[in-house]
Amino acid sequence: MKVDLFDFHLPEELIAQTPLADRTSSRLMVLDKKTGDIQHGIFKDLKNHLKAGDCLVLNDTRVLPARLFGEKTGTGAKIEVLLLKQLEGDAWETLVKPAKRVKEGTEITFGNGSLTAVCTGTSDHGGRILEFKYEGIFYEVLEQLGEMPLPPYIKEQLDDRERYQTVFARERGSAAAPTAGLHFTEQLLNEIKEMGVHVAFITLHVGLGTFRPVSVEDLNEHEMHAEFYQVTEGTARLLNEVREQGGRIISVGTTSTRTLETIASAHNGRFEEASGWTDIFIYPGYEFKAIDGMITNFHLPKSTLIMLVSALAGRGSVLNAYNKAVEERYRFFSFGDAMLIL
């Protein structure tokens, strides 16, 4: 299967640059995965498509202010660092720009010198391993010096960094937001629970794969970067009960989807308490074992995310829906509108 099969024309002005004032006022396209039929509404309408006994599964990862701007010790050269994954202790896998200036042994200082880093090695795809030194608590230093790692297609400054967090973000560790969850407010979640719909949480820390384009023509040759996930015993038990009682499991975002499918694939369609690293790559031909539906944003052409959506709803239906979204001037990507696939 070729990457070009997932291309579509996207006018640049449809890439949302800022979040809406009201999280729930974004538009919602509803796509029937069996017929390809499309309905248009707003995100608050989500309640009209859920019923008692269903379960929404949300990713409670919290985005780190993971973009740091420093200087190379000795030369003063400007260096940008993006934290991707904590390895051991104070060692992190990072992306560094310009990478050619950061070789093994290079030291970088940040802010007033309250944080320094030494390059101790390289990782896949041009990454750098940095060992950090500081006084106090690393995450507190990061809160002072770091910036939100907004995707490269967002050019505007973010006034309120909490708008790149979900309202239920708890577990620190992501290099990017699970953006389908950005549409929810506490009020909407409470209204959904009052309907008898279950709400469950998993954790997947979004990593390097989010920033990597598909660079091969044949999908069989693409390798996903592994990301850390965790599902508790309580969440696993709830999901099994929902399934046994005939409720639908609706994942919020591709990250929740990949986590649930990883676990169900390893346990014959059942859910178990688990944590580890997943590099599951879902594209058309994949047989879903965990979810019945999904809420997701509108994704980049030729990305692994549009491939996952196409696996669930069919490539033809998804590309038709995306073309309709362009015609109807939907907002795309992280701060954009949402799609519900049922």
UniProtKB/TrEMBL annotation:
UniProt EC number: 2.4.99.17
Main localisation: cytoplasm
Pfam families cross-referenced by the UniProt entry: Queuosine_synth
Annotated GO biological process: tRNA queuosine(34) biosynthetic process
UniProt GO cellular component terms: cytoplasm
Entry keyword annotation includes Glycoprotein: no
Gene3D superfamilies: QueA-like
Reaction(s) this enzyme catalyzes, per UniProt: 7-aminomethyl-7-carbaguanosine(34) in tRNA + S-adenosyl-L-methionine = epoxyqueuosine(34) in tRNA + adenine + L-methionine + 2 H(+)
Localization: Cytoplasm
Homology family: Belongs to the QueA family.
Subunit record text: Monomer.
NCBIfam families associated with the record: PRK00147.1, queA
Function description: Transfers and isomerizes the ribose moiety from AdoMet to the 7-aminomethyl group of 7-deazaguanine (preQ1-tRNA) to give epoxyqueuosine (oQ-tRNA).
Stored PANTHER family: S-ADENOSYLMETHIONINE:TRNA RIBOSYLTRANSFERASE-ISOMERASE (PTHR30307:SF0)
Protein name, as recorded: S-adenosylmethionine:tRNA ribosyltransferase-isomerase
